[in-house]
Design brief:
It contains 8 helices and 6 strands, in the order H-H-E-E-E-E-E-H-H-E-H-H-H-H. The protein is an alpha+beta fold. A hairpin with a 5-residue loop joins strand 1 and strand 2.
């Protein structure tokens, strides 16, 4: 299983302005494209300045004519990611050669509409998917044949080569002649003896060789370009351009559809959360209304009691507190009498200290009061147990 050290990745992104969003973006890619690895390296800009940036280096699978090839790429993330678009390159191995097209220049730098229209809501996963589809239509590399004398172009940024899956089939570019000095010296791309490319059993991507016409323009040993050939070349060029534009629009629409699907999912989840919150608020509202109604009833009852108190000139102490049952009345009377004994004991002690009564009288009265207090407390305990009140 492909394991990713998320803590190490977080440390690598410590200098980035938005490390959380960048980490999430990178993890989404690494969990799907296991041929890519992340690391921090020094990137050299065109003005000679350098900066340590995170890159995704490795291969991505590309389907081409029924076969799947691993194309080597390197994606550099700016420290302002995802606000600024990443810098993407094709990294050819020594056995490969870059195929210059509308999407890849001679340095291997990748150009895509998705990169050109990059915004903070764009993400790396969509970029890699669009890159895979685009390279399936227009391969960015091809294998160097044994007869090819090739001097590697400078590649930015330089990194060590990595072993990959078998490269793309050899592809040669058709040379369309232009009127002028070299018109009669047009030489079509060469093919193998059976019209297949060296090292592969696939037909050549190059233009077929035109048969020489004796006595034609340019003398012996040269080919000739007829109006039919020019017409076919123009039609082919227009078809290629239209295919690229259509594929470009398809890729863009697919990316937009995926973004809309994610947005729809987020909105659906948000709708569910909002419904839960609304349901909870409705329950709380009902509870609050019930409490308000109860408080209003209590307030009216209290107001009636206050009005009643104001209309009475004098209040009988014995009638001030009433009970709802005889048991409660017995408990109340016992409690009042026990409290009175407590007060009497206190004041007798004060009288003894003041010399009002002597010690013998004090002890006799305290003994009687204590015995009575004990009986009252036992009675209160019994009443509480009978009424099932807390002790």
């Amino acid at each position: 299983m492909h394991k990713i050290d998320e803590n190490a990745l977080g440390r690598m992104l410590s200098s980035y302005r938005d490390p959380t969003a960048t980490k999430k973006d990178v993890l989404n890619v690494l969990r799907i494209y296991h041929g890519l690895q992340h690391r921090v390296e020094e990137y050299v800009f065109n003005d000679g300045s350098t900066k340590h940036l995170l890159n995704l280096n490795g291969t991505i699978p590309v389907k081409f004519k029924g076969n799947t090839y691993n194309i080597p790429i390197c994606v550099w993330l700016m420290d302002t990611h995802p606000r600024n678009a990443p810098m993407c390159y094709v990294k050819p191995t020594p056995e490969m050669r870059i195929k210059v097209s509308a999407y890849v220049d001679f340095n291997g730098k990748i150009y895509l509409p998705y990169l050109h229209e990059w915004n903070p809501k764009s993400d790396l996963l969509d970029l890699i998917q669009i890159m895979s589809v685009t390279f399936g239509e227009t391969p960015p590399v091809y294998s160097k044949g044994p007869e090819t004398n090739y001097t590697p172009q400078p590649y930015i940024p330089p990194t060590s080569a990595t072993s990959y899956m078998p490269p793309y089939p050899t592809q040669q570019f058709p040379q369309y002649p232009m009127p002028g000095a070299g018109y009669n010296n047009f030489v079509p791309p060469s093919t193998g003896p059976t019209g297949a490319m060296p090292g592969y059993g696939m037909p050549s991507f190059g233009m077929p060789a035109y048969p020489p016409v004796p006595g034609a323009l340019g003398g012996a040993g040269t080919g000739t370009i007829t109006e039919e050939h020019i017409r076919a070349s123009l039609i082919s060029a227009v078809e290629d351009k239209l295919k690229r534009r259509v594929q470009e629009k398809v890729n863009q629409c697919q990316a937009e559809i995926q973004t809309l699907k994610r947005t729809q999912q987020e909105l659906t989840e948000g709708q569910t959360k909002i419904k839960e919150i609304m349901s909870r608020l409705e329950r709380d509202e009902k509870g609050l209304l019930k409490s308000i109604s109860l408080l209003k009833d209590k307030e009216k009852e209290l107001q009636r009691s206050l009005d009643l108190v104001n209309t009475v000139d004098s209040i009988d102490v014995d009638e001030a507190v009433t009970t709802t049952a005889p048991l409660y009345k017995q408990l109340l009377n016992a409690y009042a009498e026990e409290a009175a004994i407590e007060d009497a004991t206190y004041f007798m002690g004060e009288a003894l200290r003041g010399g009002v009564i002597d010690l013998e009288v004090f002890l006799k009265q305290v003994r009687q009061l204590s015995r009575k207090q004990f009986m009252l407390r036992a009675l209160m305990q019994k009443c509480r147990q009978t009424a099932r009140l807390p002790a």
